[in-house]
Amino acid sequence: MNLHAPKGIDVENWFIECYRKHKGHPLKILIGLYKGNYNKFFLAVLFFFIKHAPVWVLPIVTANIINDITSGSPDTIQNIIIQAIIMVALVALNVPMNYLYTRYKSLATRYAETGLRKALVRKLQQLSISYHKETQSGRLQSKIMRDVEAVETLSTQMFLSILNIALNIGVALFVTVSKSLIVFLFFLLTTPLAAATMVFFRNIMKKRNTEFRKEMEETSARVMEMVELIPVTRAHALEEEEVTKMSGQLFAVAEKGYKLDVIQALFGSVGWAIFQIFQVVCLGFTGFLALKGSVGPGDITLYQSYFATIVSQVSSLMSLIPVIAKGVESVNSIGEVLLEEDIECNDGKEALDSVEGEFDFKNVRFAYNNTDKPVLHELNLHVDKGQTIALVGESGAGKSTILNLVIGFNFATDGVVTIDGHDIRDIDLRSYRKHLAVVPQTSILFSGTIRDNITYGIDDVDEDTLNKVVDAANLRDLIDSLPDGLDTVVGEHGGKLSGGQRQRVSIARALMRNPKVIVLDEATSALDSISEKLIQEALNNLTKDRTTFIVAHRLSTIKGADRIAVIADGHCVEYGTYDELMELKGEFYQMKSIQS
C-alpha cells in the first residue's frame, strides 16, 4: 500500500475541478476528494464493524447468561462456556481488525490531505503576483496547514465516525425490535428530541466557527509579520508597543474562541442532560415490564445497555456537530483559493524556443484594478537586443511598473508590450522566463547552502561553470573564507550573510541561468561603497551582451548604460545616453546635480 494517487487521476486538477463543480455543496466536495479511494473507505468500515462486534454482542451474551441462571436451565454451564468462548474470539479479533481499519482509513484520508495541500501549492504558483500582493501570506499558510487538517478530521468524522454511530444505533434498534416492540417504540422517542437539539444549534455554531476561523487567519498573518519585523522592532526599542498591538489581536481571538467554546459547551451539556434523564426513565420502564413478565430479568440489562449505546451515540453525533461545522468552514476556506480566477494563464499560448531580447513599448497605459488613475500612460520605448537601458525618476513615477511589464507580472491596460515582435500577452511566459533573470533590491535567499541558492532551478551543474560564475559574481574571496565553502548554510532568508554578500549570491544565481534578458531593481541602492563596487563589477559581467533593464537611484551607477529613460508622471520625458542627457540640461541633469 502507498499514498500515490489512483491510476488515471490527475489529483491536483481533479480537486480544483471538484470544487468548481460542487461549489456551495461542501459534502459533495468532500465525497469528490476521495475519488479512487472509495474502496479503502469500504474496507475501513467493514473492519470497523468487525472490531466493534464485542460492543454489540456483549449485552446479548450478558442477558442470555442472566436469563439462564434465573430460569434454572440444566444447560446453563454449557451455555455460559460457549458464549464466553464467542466473546473471547470476538475480542481477540479486535487487534488485527483495528490495524486493518486504521490502515485503510489512514491511506484514504492522508491521500486526500496530501492532495489538497498539493492542489493549494500548485494554485498558489498559478495565481497572479497581484493576488499575492493583496493577500497576507499568513492567511494562505493557515489554509494550507490548519484548514486542510480540519478537512481531514471532517472526513474521518463524516465517513467513519458517523457510519460507526449509524451502525451502533442500527444494531441496537434491530435487536430491540426483534425482542420487544414496546421498548423499541420507547427508544424512538429520543430521536426527534436529538434532531431538534441539533437543528437549533446548527446555524449559530456555523456563525461562530466562521468568525473564529477568520480571526485565526488574521492572527496568523499578524504573527508572521511580527516575526519578520523583530529586528526593526528591537532596533527602535518598540518591543512593548509590538506586544501591546499583538495582545489586542490575541484577545480578539480569545473572545471569538470563548464564544465558540460556550456555545459548544451549552450544546453538549443540554444534550447530555436530556439523554441521561431518558436513560433513567428507560431503567424504570424496563424494570416495570420485567415485573409484569413482559421481558426477562436479563433483558433489563440488554435494553439498558442498548439504550446507553443509543444515548452515547446520539450524544457523540451531537458532539461532532462543532467538528463538522469547523470542517465545512475549512472546506469553504480552501475553496476561496482553489476557485480564485486571478491566475496567470499560459495554456495554449505560443512557447518561445529562444529569446533575442528586443523590446517595444507602444502607447502603453497601465492602471491597477482598484484605481482609475493610471501609473503609466502613452509610454513609448524601444530597446534593442543586448542593450542596457536604465530607468530613472522619482519614487512612484512608474519605473517598477515597467519592470513588472517586462517580467510579465502585469499586462498593459492599453497599448502593447512586445518581446522580439511577440505580444507578451500571447506567449507562454514560462518559456520566456527561462531566458530571464531578476536581481531584486532585496535579495531573496532560502535557508539552504550557497551552492543550492546559486544553482536554484538548474540541474546537472558542472563545477567549472559554477566556479566561473562565483568568480564573475566577485564571490571568490567570500567562498574561500568560509570553512564549508559553497556548502555553507546561509540561514533563514540568508541571515548569516551580509547584504552585499546576499546580493552577490543573487547575481551569481542570475549568471547561472545564462539569461538573455536581465532585470535589476535598484540592486546596489542599500549597500556601502565597497560592496557597491564589488557588485557593480559583478553586474558588468552579468549584463555583457544581454538586454538589461536597470532601475537605479544612484545615477553614478548607470553612466555606462546604452540608454537612459527618465520616467515622470507615467511616461518617458527624456531618452538618450548619459552624455546626451547631461548636455540637454533637463530633468536628468537636475537630478544628477542634486546628487553631486
TrEMBL record:
Ranges for domain ABC transmembrane type-1: 57-326
SMART domains found in the cross-reference section: AAA
A Gene Ontology molecular function term of the record: ABC-type oligopeptide transporter activity
Principal location: membrane
Pfam families xref list: ABC_membrane (PF00664), ABC_tran (PF00005)
Domain ABC transporter: 359-594
UniProt-listed InterPro entries: AAA+_ATPase, ABC1_TM_dom, ABC1_TM_sf, ABC_transporter-like_ATP-bd, ABC_transporter-like_CS, P-loop_NTPase, Type_1_exporter
A single GO cellular-component term on record: plasma membrane
Subcellular localization: Cell membrane
Lyase keyword on record: no
Stretches that traverse the bilayer: 41-60, 80-101, 154-175, 181-201, 265-291
Protein name per UniProt: ATP-binding cassette, subfamily B, bacterial
Organism for this UniProt entry: Lachnospira eligens (strain ATCC 27750 / DSM 3376 / VPI C15-48 / C15-B4) (Eubacterium eligens)
